[in-house]
Amino acid sequence: MHEQNAEYVTNGPMTEVDVLNKASEILETKFLKGEGFTSPSAAKDFLRYKLAHQKREVFAILLMDSQHRLIEYKELFFGTINAAPVYPREVMKEVLQQNAAAVILAHNHPSGVTEPSEADKRVTKRIKDALNHIDVPVLDHIVVGQDTVSFAERGLL
């Protein structure tokens, strides 16, 4: 676990992507079996660092324990600049393998527009319905672009 005011040293110049990757590593360490994702803003901050710089669509999940602490962040599906195939069966398989008690779904929109599409809403419902059979709640689905949108905050779950 990193200290509140830990210092970090680089071995030379860093690109913007390098800085974002380092920031996401620091946040991942913070949430990995440490602090829980107790609000949409914490998850949104974490996911912004993980997904905002991606040039193609990436669908990821946050696998969490019963206290909503991170077990693992996993990028599952990769697509083109505007779509990624998502398979609920594969999501369920990861949830079972990691013994997750809850999940947050996430994906980016490389276009920067974060408004959830009808396809986003449909896949969220399919995954939520599948995970309901094994008593694992979907706490949120976050879309990352120029901003971040939380399905939970919008009442879309």
From TrEMBL:
Residues 36-157 form the MPN domain. PROSITE patterns: MPN, UPF0758. Pfam families: RadC. InterPro entries: MPN (IPR037518), RadC_JAB (IPR025657), UPF0758 (IPR001405), UPF0758_CS (IPR020891). The keyword Protease applies. GO terms for biological process: proteolysis. GO terms for molecular function: metal ion binding; metallopeptidase activity. It comes from Idiomarina aquatica. Keywords: Hydrolase, Metal-binding, Metalloprotease, Protease, Zinc. This is MPN domain-containing protein. It comes from the Bacteria.
